[in-house]
Amino acid sequence: MAGLAWDHGAVWGACDPAGMEATLRAARIPTRLSWLAASTRAHSLDEVAAAVRRAPLALPDATFAVIAHRRGQQPFRSPDIAAAAGAAVIDAHRARTGRRLPVGLDSPAVVVRVELVDERLRIGCELTAGSRHRRRDLMRRHRAGLNPAVAATLVALAGWDSGQDLLDPMCGAGTIPVEAARAARREPPPLAVGDRLDALGWRDAGAAAAAETAVEAVRAAPGLAITAVDHDPASCDATRANLAAAGLAGAVLVRRDDARRLEGIASVDAVAANPPYGLRQGRSRELASLYEAALRCVSHRLVPGGRVVWLTPAHRVATRAATAAGLVAHGRRTLALGAFDAAACRFVRPRT
Ligand SMILES: C[S@@+](CC[C@H](N)C(=O)[O-])C[C@H]1O[C@@H](n2cnc3c(N)ncnc32)[C@H](O)[C@@H]1O
């Protein structure tokens, strides 16, 4: 979407604040989104502070906090950036309004985001509040479970449309199928946008009401074709429990099966998978053989032009296996999973 830039799980939007809520809801972005107030270069904390003072943040008189991220070889750390930027925000606000902006570290109304990647500096306000990483109704977590924001991203990357068949061949506790069913019912992505927009005075009541009407219309729509498979009975039970807790029982067919066999599944349009990474077992030959067999099986069931998204830190192993299975690599996106990054590898079944 025009005006949006991805960077390691964070998305920056250079859009007009007035249309931001409609943009957010239409884009269904399942990750943090910040409004980009300024983009420039900085090599020192003084330059960061000067850029923050110049940035057109125009914050309301409400509690604020700064979240800073840094990547690169700088001789200072993220908390140093947060401290310098926080002081600069207070200076700029006092110069503009004559008042001191209160800091609110526990639950700030406004979060200023400052990101320095090498020498590129981005300054803005977070528009998404709370953690997208938790759904209150995700009752049972798999020990290697995804956060719902990543699961929703995989569904989006698979280019799945709710009229098509979607398969998660290794579903664990069902985070991917739950997010797919939510997306099909046009439920909001797992992040609250309203509170931050309210605090900034950017709330668009019309957009919110239109979105609610759309949600109701799609909720009433008939069945979906989402299948979730796992060879572990406890994982199948956890998926069913999570679907039921989310009010989505019946929206997904849950089957106990081996992803290397997939009996009873004739054809699928899209696959979103979060296979084991081999990190615990550390046996790379076993991982390669699982990926080869599962991707071959998936490939045989994909319609021509069908898409696979395969999330793994072992993207070379996955790409080799997919190519051997007759799939064509179609780019990959790095997603931050907390302790490490993984690649969402996209593969396509050729049409001929
Ligand atoms: C990383 S976990 C998936 C976690 C899931 N995305 C979630 O958020 O809960 C990988 C899953 O693959 C399943 N699995 C591993 N080998 C499999 C196979 N051959 N067939 C089916 N499922 C398999 C495991 O039982 C495990 O539940």
CATH superfamily of the largest domain: Vaccinia Virus protein VP39
CATH architecture descriptor text of the largest domain: 3-Layer(aba) Sandwich
Count of beta strands: 13
Strand order of the largest sheet: 9-8-7-10-11-13-12
At the fold tier of CATH, the topology name of the largest domain is Rossmann fold
Order of helices and strands: EEHEHEHEEHEHHHEHEEHEHEE
Can you give the mean pLDDT? 82
Task: State the helical fraction.
Answer: 25-40%
Low-confidence stretches: 131-135, 214-222
Percentage of residues in strands: 25-35%
According to CATH, what is the class of the largest domain?
Alpha Beta
Instruction: Give a quick account of the main beta sheet: strands, pairing sense, barrel closure.
Output: 7 strands, mixed
The rounded distance between the terminal residues' Cα atoms is: 30 Å
Tell me, what's the shape? elongated
- Helical run tally: 10
> Class by helix and strand content?
alpha/beta
Count of spatially separate domains: 2
What hetero molecules are in the model?
A: S-adenosylmethionine
